[in-house]
Amino acid sequence: MRYLALVTDYDGTLAPHGRISEETARAIERLRVSGRRVILATGRRLDDLIAICPYLRLFDLVVAENGGIIYDPSSREEIRLANPPPKKLLQGLRMRKIDPLEIGQIVISTRASHRAGVQDVIWELGLEAQIIANRDSVMVLPAGINKAAGIGCALRKLGLSRHEVVGIGDAENDHSFLELCECPVAVANAVPSLREGAAFVTRAENGDGVVELIDELIANDLCLAESKLQQHLILLGTRSDGTVVHLPPYGQNMLVAGPSGSGKSTFAAGIIERLIEKDYQVCIVDPEGDYGTLRDVVALGNQWRAPGVDEILSILEDPKINLSVNLLGIPLNDRPDFLAQLIPNLQAMRARTGRPHWLVLDEAHHMLPDTWGHAESTLPQQLGEIILITVHPDHVVPAVLAKIQVIVAIGHSPEKTLTKFSKATGKALMWPEGLSYHPDRVITWLVRNGCPPFTMLPAQGRAERIRHHRKYAEGDLRFHSFYFRGHDGRHNLKAQNLAIFCQIAQGIDQETWMFHLHRGDYSRWFRHAVKDDFLADEVDRIERRTDLAPWQTRQMIIELIHTRYTLAE
What we know:
Elements: E1 5-9, H1 22-33, E2 37-41, H2 46-52, E3 61-64, E4 69-72, E5 77-80, H3 87-95, E6 102-103, E7 108-111, H4 115-125, E8 129-134, E9 137-142, H5 147-158, E10 165-169, H6 175-180, E11 183-186, H7 192-197, E12 200-201, H8 206-220, E13 234-239, E14 244-247, E15 253-257, H9 264-277, E16 282-286, E17 298-300, H10 309-316, E18 323-326, H11 335-353, E19 358-361, H12 364-367, H13 375-378, E20 386-390, H14 398-401, E21 406-409, H15 414-425, E22 442-446, E23 454-458, H16 469-474, E24 482-484, E25 493-495, H17 498-507, H18 510-518, H19 521-528, H20 533-544, H21 550-565
Parallel strand pairs: 1-2, 1-10, 2-3, 10-11, 11-12, 15-20, 15-21, 16-18, 16-19, 17-18, 19-20
Antiparallel strand pairs: 3-4, 4-5, 6-7, 7-9, 8-9, 13-14, 13-23, 21-22, 22-23, 24-25
Helix pairs in contact: 1-8, 3-4, 17-21, 19-20, 20-21
């Protein structure tokens, strides 16, 4: 189920002439029985709404006074999101003979014909207040208070994000909250500007239009509106002819595959950035600690501390938090079993809240190996919104590969990568004549569309990312380690990561340090083993300088590593 909540305006939408019909009330009850939440959003004063509407019990929460108050009908709890109107504003409006004047706990309302006079008072008093149109009336509210602000707070209180929400309205003050909702809908009697921005417009007016929407929600989860939600598409890149390639944010699974060091993690990090920019919650299962430096992502776990499933779920309860689950503290052979515990819990959370919206699995051939016998009993039948990253697509459990719709092959042998996927899944690969590897391009295959693979220029991420950050800083590079030996081989000191490198560099004798410096060994290791060209270039400049004392070269290189990789002291 994609849409877990309906947000509806009151006057002119749910309630013509201020009253909800029995038929509309029954439709709301049917929607609640389907497992969905319902939020009422209105510009009315709360006391006025309570007096006129006998059906408030049908709503999980009420956002009243155009976003200024959140009201829980079951507990009768009120939450104010702003201060009451300033006394000097009320005095100024009365002196200007603004009448009628309806004063709520947060909102002030009057006729639209008084708009200029109200604006003059606000200007003369130098107040931070806004005027919002609502058909034949205007409302005065504190800056930043509107229906979107109130609904955002209400959704967070319910543990939902805006991407699980359908919104329906009719008037100018509904613009803000409809823009917030994943699927904006307008009733047939809505103002023209609202109808233009809606994913679709109901055939019926007022409450009958809401009933029409509810019936569609229950019947097919608004699948017919999917093609009209272009604003939520996630940019992947552009074809050779300039056509933009997007990833739908719902109902898709992606595989990113290619040789080690080809840029898979960097490509995935760019997608993660764009998902987060659009408020989709992302949970990254991060075996090597590669994604802990991403902006707006909380890292959990390290090589000394394994994360717990309950801890992960608790953090993800907040829709605003994106999480990277670092598995360095879990032995490699135990990681599939950890995932076997995590995925069913994440799926249960998704059923309840719709989140996390996307799950990213790096090193998928280790996390979901084809030798793993628990795939059928552990993995859900409808695996959705997942990104798998792997060197060996043919080593991933076939039950997961069969659910992939989008494949991005990165690196110098894309045909080999896609052939492995094709053989593992039995899906025919038609390799176009002339399609070949380009250093700055990737090969994309939209399996569901039945189209052959094509060349794509990938969209770039916001900022440079240090590849395998934790692995190089604190992990074990094994046979790619650096060895401090000296000119006569008197030493054999192994630095298996950057932290150990810095420790040895601080204590090694000057002769040995300068031997490797003059040979360019440090920059060569940073370039080819650590695969950090920026660090290698900076160290190469230090190696070539003749004006530096040995202790200065040592200090500068160590400081460069500490700054770039934020090593713990």
